[in-house]
Amino acid sequence: MLLSCRPARWLTARCLAPLALATMAALSGCASRGGGGGATAAPPTAVKAMPPIPDLSQVRTFTEAIPGLPTTKAGLTAAALQQLGELRYPPAAWDQGLQGWAVYDFVVTRDGSVDQKYIRLVAASDDLFAKPAEDAVRSARFAPAMQGGSGVATLVRLPVYFSLDQAARRR
After folding, report:
1. Which one of 56, 73, 76, 145 has the minimum C-beta count within 10 Å?
2. Residue 4, Cβ neighbours under 10 Å: how many?
3. Dist CA 46 CA 144 (whole Å)
4. pLDDT tens per residue across span 62-86
5. Which of 11-15, 91-95, 166-170 is the least confident region?
6. Measured between alpha carbons, how far is residue 153 from residues 47, 96, 136 in Å?
7. Residue 30 confidence (pLDDT)
8. End-to-end distance of the chain based on CA atoms, in angstroms?
9. Beta-strand (E) ranges in the chain?
10. Residue 132 is part of a domain; what is its CATH number?
């Protein structure tokens, strides 16, 4: 699976967990993409530790059927993140020395764009991070999932990290 900084009915938690873990590893520190959210100084000296993401494998955000998703996983390859949209560090979080994350579920269409009708917040370490992460997810680009040689729509769970250390390096 190709991941960089910048799935059928509902995928089961068992299918989403490896994707989430692989994505978390690939995205650690990518929150600084796109610059800052207003502040230009170094992060506050009292930087709070990054809160851990709890086990979200049993959380379902879509309870209704999503039209257009494959009905079988046979031969289905996952969508691969190519570029996360512009991610702006929330100024209030910067000023407080907060680091955090937000996890989103969404549908990637057969052309690799994010379907704007199907974006749901799974969890966030703080409400300050939910909106900037959603904005980045809405404009993300993917290599679409493939099945039988054709691009297919698929469900993706993506954690987005906000690291003061990484954001400070990008300023």
Report:
1. 73
2. 12
3. 41
4. 988 898 899 888 999 999 999 999 9
5. 11-15
6. 40, 39, 19
7. 44
8. 30
9. 80-83, 100-108, 114-124, 141-143, 145-147, 150-152, 154-162
10. 3.30.2420.10
Q: Is residue 27 part of a domain?
A: yes
* CA 122 to each of CA 106, 130, 133, 159, 165: distance values in angstroms, whole numbers, following the listed order: 10, 10, 12, 9, 25
Would 72 be classed as within a structural domain? no
Q: Is residue 62 part of a domain?
A: no
Question: Can you list the alpha helix ranges (DSSP code H) found in 28-171?
Answer: 91-96, 130-138, 164-170
Structural domain boundaries enclosing 20: 15-51+77-170
Tokens 């991070």 found at: 129
- Say if 147 falls within a structural domain: yes
pLDDT the model gives residue 16: 40
Here the tokens at position 92 are 């209030």
Number of Cβ atoms within 10 Å of the Cβ of 105: 22
**Structure-block tokens of residue 7:** 């799935």
